[in-house]
Amino acid sequence: MSHTATGQTPGQPTDADRRRGFFGRIWLFFRQVVGELKKVVTPTRRELVNYVLVVLVFVAFMMVLISLLDLGFGQVAIWLFGDGTQAQ
Fold first, then answer.
1. Is the pLDDT of residue 58 over 60?
2. Residue 20: exposure state from Cβ atoms within 10 A (0-12, 13-18, ≥19)
């Protein structure tokens, strides 16, 4: 097993965690979650509109591209295998 620079094995509780107890570790987790959520920056209205437009344009482009590819491959399949009617 590899050890960190402090000599602890990753994933193993430290002595401080053992002293803290089960509910203390849960409380610490929630405090850290709240601390991370405070770092989140919400976009401005202009940025949000810009992001939404970029996503919508990208989705529309991908829909057109996939539709054209599907149509093209379908035509190739019809040309290669026929349209399903028997020649009499």
1. yes
2. middle
